[in-house]
Amino acid sequence: MTETCGMISLENTRLGFHHSGSTGVLVPGVDSRIIDINSIKPQPPFHKGEIWVRGQNMMQGYLKNMKATTETVDEQGWIHTGDLGYFDDDEGRLYVVEELLKCKGYHVFLISTLNLGVNLGPAVIVAFMGSKVK
């Protein structure tokens, strides 16, 4: 998430105990959504989707690369991070669970994202083609 140019969330252990796996709550001035990559609709708590963020600390675009900019930043200023995550419903803690890969215009999911419970061994990498990138 280098496009964010700074923090988007913070786990403040002085305010309570650490939540394993959480990156914390959003910092002031940052908005975020979890978006289903197929329907492009916001997801409720505990549902995985692509993490979208926007705020004053976000990049404006890629230098001299309009194509990459339009693929990453939409018209409303949301940065499509390419990372999968979810929010909990307690205090809005963000959990980043995996990077969403893109290959030849398609989303690609690693097998761990699909939670199939299959152990193929450490030398095997399995990916599944998902939806066409919009």
From TrEMBL:
SUPFAM superfamilies in UniProt: Acetyl-CoA synthetase-like
Molecular function terms, GO-annotated: ligase activity
Pfam families: AMP-binding (PF00501)
Entry keyword annotation includes Ligase: yes
Keyword line: Ligase
Residues annotated as domain AMP-dependent synthetase/ligase: 1-63
Protein name: 4-coumarate--CoA ligase-like 7
Native species: Forsythia ovata
